[in-house]
Amino acid sequence: NTPRLVAAQPQPVHASSAPPAGDFIQLRGVCKSYGEQLVVMDNLSLDMRADDRLVIIGPSGSGKSSLLRVLMGLEGIQGGTISFQGQPYIAGGSGCGKPLHEGLRTQIGMVFQHYTLFPHLSVLGNLILAPTKVHGLSKAEASEKARAYLARLGLESKLHAYPSQLSGGQKQRVAIARALMLEPKLMLFDEVTSALDPEMVIEVQNVMLQLAEQKMAMIIVTHDMHFARHIATRVVFCAGGKVIEQGPPEQIFTQPKEARTREFLEKVL
Ligand code: ADP
Ligand code: MG
To answer: What range(s) does the ABC transporter domain occupy (predicted)?
Structure first.
């Protein structure tokens, strides 16, 4: 067989700002507003790959927390669709935000700015609550697992402590451990170090960097641009309900293309 001559295929031209395709998370035309006036997602589309660590930056009030809460199934969207791991996950008009697929929701873990540990439960109690109630693990199995996670995060000695006996940084690390107990495929972090004293910021960021090394998919909202640059595979700048610009951290932080990104970075850097 003589090889047939094939006309050279034209190379696709990628604008460097073209979002990388990714089917781990896909938002398509997502619309969300509060009341009649306040639009927080305006026909928003966003892609994420399973090996991405997206850092979302943007002005206060630009809808970053809303986006994470939607992904967590805590709030609905009015329009558009969200798929997760290639499956339909959330659809517009879902009102309260109940995901189409509860099994997918439990594969997402979230940590908030203000510690959300149950104050009346010990660290161990906090960690084993969902695994025993939701995932049907026995108390012994869940406790074993809790010990292992706490050891990884350097918190073994706090197993029987109550949240009020922990520092802010320890509470956030316990909150991360509690989310990891359910073996999420995706972790969401909403300004988890914003309320911490500086020396505790590092211990929490180190845990997140550890997760990054283990290739955990993460969406991180932070105002710490130094950390953003360090941990992100991609930085997404959102404002006015839209993705204004996204790209690798070096590009966004040193050569932002959009005037709005530059203005924002000048204020926060
Ligand atoms: P960000 O995290 O970027 O600061 P948020 O998602 O928290 O932004 O909020 C976006 C906008 O929506 C803000 O103006 C906020 O006041 C408003 N908002 C957030 N949650 C609600 C809610 N449950 N009801 C009404 N307005 C809300
Ligand atoms: Mg917020």
So the answer is: 25-265
Nearest atom (ligand 1) to Cα of 59: 3
Separation of alpha carbons 66 and 77, rounded Å: 10
- Residue 71: its H or E element: helix 64-71
* pTM of the full structure: 0.91
Give the residues across from 60 on adjacent strands: none
To which residue do tokens 């050279």 refer?
8
Tell which residue, 190, 33, 41, has the closest CA to residue 108: 190
What crossing angle do the helices spanning 139-152 and 168-180 adopt, rounded to 10°? 130
Looking at ligand 1, which residue's alpha carbon is closest to its atom 17? Answer: 61
Instruction: Give pLDDT tens digits for 139-174.
Output: 999 999 999 999 999 899 999 999 999 999 999 999
Q: Provide the sign of the torsion angle of the four alpha carbons 262, 263, 264, 265, taken in this order.
A: positive
